[in-house]
Amino acid sequence: MAATSQLIPAAPSALAARGRFGSAFLRNRVGMAGAVMIVIAAIVAVTAPFVAPYDPYERVTVTIDDIYQAPSAAHPLGTDDGGGDVLSKLIYGARVSLVVGFVAAFISLIVGGTIGLLAGYFGGRLGALLMRFTDFFLVIPDLALLIVIVAVLRDRSLFNLILVIGLLGWTTTARLVRSQVLSLRERKFVTRARAIGAGDPYIIRHHILPLALPLMLANTVLVISLAILAESTLAFIGLGDPTVISWGQMLNFAFGRGAVSANAWWALLPPGLAIVWVVLGTTLLGTAMEEALNPRLRRHHLETEERPGGSRASLLPGFAAAAAGADAPVLSVRDLTIEFDSPAGPLRAVDGVSFDLRRGETLGLVGESGCGKTTTALGLLRLLPPGGHVVGGSVLYDGRDLMTMESDELRAVRWSGLSIVFQGAMNALNPVRNVGDQISEAILLHQPEISRRDAARRTRALLARVGITASRAGEYPHTFSGGMRQRAMIALALACNPDVVIADEPTTALDVMIQAQILELLASLSREFGMGTILVTHDLGVVAQVCSRVVVMYGGRVAEQGDVRTIFAEPSHPYTQALLGAFPNVGDADRALRAIPGSPPRLDALPTGCRFTPRCPYAFERCPAEIPELYVVDGDHRAACFLLAPAAGIGSGTPTNGGRGSDA
Ligand code: SF4
Description:
Elements: H1 14-27, H2 29-46, H3 48-51, H4 86-122, H5 124-138, H6 142-152, H7 158-168, H8 171-184, H9 188-195, H10 200-236, H11 247-256, H12 265-293, H13 316-324, E1 329-340, E2 347-358, E3 362-366, H14 373-380, E4 388-397, E5 400-401, H15 407-413, E6 418-421, H16 425-428, H17 435-446, H18 452-465, H19 482-493, E7 500-504, H20 512-529, E8 532-537, H21 540-546, E9 549-554, E10 557-563, H22 564-569, H23 574-581, E11 594-595, E12 631-634, E13 637-639, E14 662-663
Parallel strand pairs: 3-8, 3-9, 6-7, 7-8
Antiparallel strand pairs: 1-2, 1-4, 4-5, 9-10, 10-13, 11-14, 12-13
Bound molecules: iron/sulfur cluster.
């Protein structure tokens, strides 16, 4: 690994994060109102024996005059069909309704949440099996099934009712959680977590669950209200637990025993309003919790870009000096071949790519979109999206082939040996975890012997090194500007002092000034840490600015590779010539830009032979018939074009497309 830099102490922020959740929740007045409503209902339920004027379970003798008495001092909410005190029953009924609602919702959350998480995260056969199981219950109407099951129950105790309601209410939760997790597992911060060496249980616990939790909580709120309504419905139709008093049972007795005809509104309205009270309270509470748990919902704002505090050293000259004394490859890629599954069979996205990366050098991987650059970069770390497979070749790092490593061995190498700066930092950082925690996480995963306090110190030092004020370690990604987020990603990539950093379009979507700062930072860090850096980009200006060598890719293959200055001065492959011809040159403002005709080949319609044939102005008979190998042009400079074959001369064949090109 590269030399460890001097790092400065700082404080951990886990407690601070919890404190922020609390303060965010306390500031939400609607949420506080909901919490107060639920707390009042809970206090009433718990203190029922002390606050109820009468014991509704006590057997008393009543007369006809006691039935449906209007509210009075003795009975503030009147009496019901049995002469019982409505207020007392309302207070005791809160116990049943709340217990049913919360316990049934908890059962649904555990069952549905677990099934949804497993089905969404692992997918495949397990996911399909779990979803068919869910669908089986989902197609049967809940209420009808609930009534049938409860009707055949011999023992309609409250416990059994809760179990039935809870076990029938999980299907929606499972479906929602699965769809949320399906989306989350494709997010870059999950790929990033996998890249830093995290296993599935860790990723689920720390990256999937926190983001799925707001949805689960919001859905649980709904399930609480549905469970209360389900119990009320069962009680209303006479299928409740006859031994307990609930709000549903009060409504059942009122409707069934003449409260409407007796105009005894006091027997109907209080239990109805009580149900509304609890349902409304839980809804407000759940919404506020969702907002507090997901800081993106709290605010959106732009911030001005912070100037970097890192090195302002010049790029290419210094970098070249660092690269000059570092000849041994730190990474050797040989014949890397990657395919994606498709209904029509495997599609080859990367075909026999080979290159070396030396310590201290920045290697540009360039080409148009769809040429296999990012797939190659992700393939090096075996972080391909679902359906992608490395089917051939080797990637040698530290004497070992990354492509044949066991999962545990690979997890250990990821981030400590090779790390990655993903394109679009907002997607690569978990939005519900602060930036400092996400950097500390990588350190702690690879160096568990380090205390959290030391990891936090190192994190703050890394942030300072990339130009972010260390005190901002406790802030969330959405509070950072685009440039600062990308700086944070670079700090994250350096967390474990890797030998190789792969930067995948690190400046995409950033303005020109910020791009320059980020590139300068990457180059100075490469020089300082002696890392090998692979820079994936479609921007030749970026390559010219920071790279010492370049690999030009087309159609998943290497078209040309060599020293940047040589290739920019004397490009040998027609594709490289076309790329440079389409690139503006401020020193030659009169030169017309030449757009490359056509577009890169689709994976399911790759041309035979040389893949550039349909767009090449020099293509001749041999081009669509054979695949050109990489011919040596001079030293390390190689290009895959028959025009460079020893036996061929430029223009030796008849161009198949008349050598067309177009002026832009
Ligand atoms: S001349 Fe032939 S081999 Fe060379 S780039 Fe054009 S199509 Fe490919």
